[in-house]
Amino acid sequence: MAGPHPGLLMFIGARYVEQRVSDAVLAAGYDDLTPAMGRAAARLSDDGIRVTELAEQARITKQSASVLVDQLERAGYVERVPDPSDARARLVVIAPRGRAVQQVARRTERAIEREWAAHLGPERMAALQDALLALREITDPFA
């Protein structure tokens, strides 16, 4: 196959999205989010997540995940709450400030998707989406 490996091409696209989102978040006044904090926060679900699960999904140590969550919590982006399924455990959930920055990120992501669809056309964009979803079945253990 000629050209760069598909994995590299996906990485380039993902890096582009990450940079655009980071730029939009910074422009919106959220200047205290590091790229590592943003990557960790992107893994948060509405139901919350335990630090151990976050570490596993992000492929970092539990200690590194704890440091990132501490930073996010101090900045007001997340909160730790009791886990209703285990009184000894805590869940990391998105705080109101985190929801606000998340809205900035989602708007930017939607804008990028529109730009890519305009560039590729509707059929190629749909094919790209279908192909990436199919690859997720074999590449994302957390899907």
Summarize the structure in words.
With 143 residues, this protein is mostly helical. The chain has one domain: Arc Repressor Mutant, subunit A. 65% of the residues lie in helices and 10% in strands. The protein contains six helices and two strands; from the N terminus they run H-H-H-H-E-E-H-H. A two-stranded antiparallel ribbon has the order 1-2. Helix 2 packs across helix 4 and helix 3 crosses helix 4.
Write the layout of secondary structure elements.
Blueprint: H1 6-27, H2 35-41, H3 51-58, H4 62-74, E1 78-83, E2 86-94, H5 96-120, H6 122-139
Antiparallel strand pairs: 1-2
Low-confidence segments, ≥5 residues, pLDDT <50? none
Mean pLDDT: 95
- What portion of the residues fall into strands of 2 or more residues? 5-15%
- Total count of strands: 2
Structure in a nutshell:
This protein has helices at 6-27, 35-41, 51-58, 62-74, 96-120, 122-139; strands spanning 78-83, 86-94. The two termini are 29 Å apart.
Properties at a glance:
143 residues, mainly alpha, Arc Repressor Mutant, subunit A, 6 helices, 65% helix, globular
